[in-house]
Amino acid sequence: MQQFTIEPKTTCKFCWQSDPEDHVCQIVRNCSTTSVGRRSFYKNVRCNWTNGYSWWKAMFLSVTLGGFGVDRFYLGLWKSAIGKLFSFGGLGIWTIVDIILIGVGYVGPADNSAYI
Asked: With a threshold of 0.90, does the pTM exceed it?
C-alpha cells in the first residue's frame, strides 16, 4: 500500500496569531493577508471573528420556542424565521430539523461569524 503525505504550503492562523507585517490594510475595517495561496484571510482591527451569538442559547431557543421561529430570529435569519413563524414550525417538522441542524452546527449566525 502506498502512503500519501500532505504538506501544507501555507499556515492557517487567526488574525491575532499572525505578524503585523503579513497584512496590507487600506481601510481600518477591511484588512486581508498577502500570503501565497488561494485563500485570503480577512482581518478586523479588533479581530472580531465572533459577534456574540451563543450556541447554547440558539439550541435552547430552538428546543423551547423553535415552533415560533425564535431561534432563527436570534441567529439573524429573519426571512426563514417569518416562514417558520407562520407555519408553526412546519407543523413541528421544521422545528425538529432545526434542533438537529443547530445541534451539529450546520445552521449558524447569518453574518457567518462563529459561535462563542
From this structure: no
